[in-house]
Task: inverse folding
């Protein structure tokens, strides 16, 4: 499954997007970036360096003595990425769920599971609580719109 994001006249590949998003966190050694790419299934060293060169040619990154960092143009692009990839991500998740269901990897209906037990940081837990309160409000409003038909 390949993700491509169109920005103006050019397209970014998922390996380019991965590198750009990692570099948003700060400069990184090429060896670290290569390990990240391997983790996501991009195992070819030559394709990694080709991806890096393409990003450099487009002016999104710059290399200096084995370290890679975003340029100003790169930061501007990375700020736009969440909005550009949002719909593609949801489509991809739906596709993966479909594949898992139809291939038999999911044998029974998925159940909701609580994340609260997995959160140890109090501020993160508070953010999660606020998220849940907002989600419950959305559910309530949606349910109020449904017409209920009484069957006798």
Result:
């Amino acid at each position: 499954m390949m993700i491509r994001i169109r920005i103006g006249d050019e397209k970014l590949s998922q390996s380019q997007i991965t590198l750009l998003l990692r570099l948003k966190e700060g400069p990184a050694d090429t060896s670290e970036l290569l390990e990240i790419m391997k983790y996501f299934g991009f195992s070819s060293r030559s394709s990694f360096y080709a991806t890096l060169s393409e990003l450099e040619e487009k002016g999104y990154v710059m290399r200096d003595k084995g370290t890679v960092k975003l340029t100003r143009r790169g930061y501007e692009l990375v700020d736009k990425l969440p909005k550009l990839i949002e719909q593609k991500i949801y489509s991809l998740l739906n596709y993966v769920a479909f594949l898992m269901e139809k291939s038999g990897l999911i044998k029974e209906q998925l159940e909701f599971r609580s994340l609260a037990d997995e959160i140890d940081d109090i501020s993160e837990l508070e953010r999660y609580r606020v998220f849940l309160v907002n989600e419950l409000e959305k559910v309530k409003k949606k349910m109020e719109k449904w017409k209920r038909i009484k069957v006798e």
